Amino acid sequence: MSEAIATAPLETTAPDTSRLAHLGLAAGLLLLVAAPFIGLYPVFVMTALCYAIFACAFNLLLGYTGLLSFGHAAYFATAAYTTGWLVRSAGWPPELGVLAGVGAAAALGLVVGFIAIRRQGIYFAMTTLALAEMAYFVFLQARSITGGEDGLQGVPRGKLLGVVPLAGEPHGKLLGVIPVPDDVVMYFVVLAVFVAVFLCIRRIVHSPYGQVLKAIRENEPRAISLGYDVDRYKLLAFVLSTALAGLGGSLKTLVLGFASLSDAHWSLSGEVVLMTLLGGMGTFAGPVLGAFTIIGLQNLLADRVGEWVTVIIGVIFVVCVVAFRRGFVGELLAWQKRRANYTSASAASKDRAP
Description:
Strand order of the largest sheet: 1-6
Distance between the termini: 18 Å
Strand content: under 5%
Mean pLDDT: 83
Helix content: over 70%
Structural class: mainly alpha
Radius of gyration: 22 Å
Number of helices: 15
């Protein structure tokens, strides 16, 4: 009985970090909902959300499975080109174009996964990079479909389900009745998809399958000894990651109206690694914060410093690695954990005092 009484205060004095995390996510969602109405440029926020989806997909592979891919831009671009060509040239509705883009990215991920998944460490990373460079060459040469160096331009947004126009007009009206500002309909479609992807990844990570992925990340030989077919688990995680990365690419094409070779360039594969590490690898909100940081810096500094924006982002990355090794969100969570441990230790010492 005395032990129970002594330990009881520990549960009440420790801060509820889970509650703080939920409050932070709720505040972020409210800010995103209000963004078009408080002066933030909808196209910029939509673009950042598309890259946030891309970064979250990559984090599922790196942060929770422990697989570093240097070729994720290939899946982003595959979906972007597939959606763009089908919507523009084949006249498909946007929702079917996006689904086709996601399917194409997942199919490419399945093929690459079969080849690369049995490799580990740097060999896996180099294999994904080599295959992604092959995809880049295909996009460059297939000018009749991708437009080559000119890119695939003039992709219309169309109408969602044949009813809701995604290309808003100034002072336009939804269904001829409700006044809607320019780009707002498309904005909330992208936001809804982003929230769905975010919740889907949280569900995957907290599922029994996600627990196996984390076991593989921490100690793959032990996971094998427990009887898990780790290659099958890693392959499924790889395909899921590529499919979600493709979803970001498809939406980006509809938002901006074009797909280009920069979507398939190796530098974009490096940028998504930077987004994930900057925000916090292995956290849910980290890749989102990292994506908004990188896209925001690129938009803010591009007209002022030109190509030096890459150097500035590189310096920020180095500073982050040195000072914030866990990323922004990772360091915040670590601080909360240290504070909780300190509070618990202080409460325990007070209870033991005569």
